[in-house]
Amino acid sequence: MHRLETERLILRPFTLDDAVELHRVIYSDIHVLRYYSGMGAMTLTETQQYLAEHLGAWREDDLGRLAAILKLTNQIIGQIHLDSYVNSFYRWKEEPNPLYNTVEVELAFAFGRQFWGKSYAYEACQAMVRYAFHDLKLRRLVGGAQPENIRSINLQRRLGYRIVESLNGPGYVTILDNYLIVQQ
Question: Going from the N-terminus, what domains does the chain have, and what CATH number goes with each?
Fold first, then answer.
């Protein structure tokens, strides 16, 4: 992925040097991780290994993970990413039993708790949505949110996502269609 900029943020590829700050802001905070991935906190060594293992793949294509850097302080405040996956688990009423699993692209994000409520995630997501639809020409973006993650659900609503219940269990699927963005 290449670098993107917003009014207050720089969204840039990660480097190995980012591991300590990334760990401090996101991967050591169980509250952030509970909402982001459902997993527990990582040790610094685990964060460093995770970053080292994934760094190459994140740089190989147009999808991947970017560090969200606050321009004012040059500090990592979060991460945002586009991930592709074979959708064998999210289903919604319009396509409850497709003949084939589709490849979807998910827009996901995690920001340090001290940066919640300041619209940084919204600003970063807007840039990624533009990139996904205008540069990559994607048809739609999907996401997921647990029912208790009201902040994420509200943010996705602000971005124009449709929020629908998953037919495969608890939680919500969020869907943002390119044609909705184009019409705005």
Answer: 4-183 (3.40.630.30)
